[in-house]
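Might I ask for a little of your time on a matter of protein folding? The record follows directly beneath this note:
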Amino acid sequence: MEIVIARGHPNIRATHKTTLEVTKEKELSPRGDCIIGICADKSVFDLNENLKKWLKLGKSIKIEIVLPDYGIRDELIAVGSPRLTLKHDTDIVVRKSEYVCDRTLAIRSNKAARDIDREIVELLKDHKTELLLIIEKN
């Protein structure tokens, strides 16, 4: 299991139909409609090696999106791919498609940013809101 900690931001919209992203970046423009969290403590590069090996085998993962201060959660399922590089030093991206780049954590997700519980999205518009991404082998 891997836990990534991030924060909300007033510009979080979470309306993208095919991707979901968490970033280490500290600012977010309104154009970043796939981003659900900023100031993350990890990128795909920082994840533990066992999880990276699992993903590169094309195995399935479960990602829980948790707001611990509110007791609210959502989850999604996605798979890895042998094509993953997991080398990006600021971002974690989950995709509904099969597109892979250095930022991609997993593909063929059953959810993108726009599919996340809207109560979670509203709470993430506050920079004080803490977000946990709990990534587990499935």
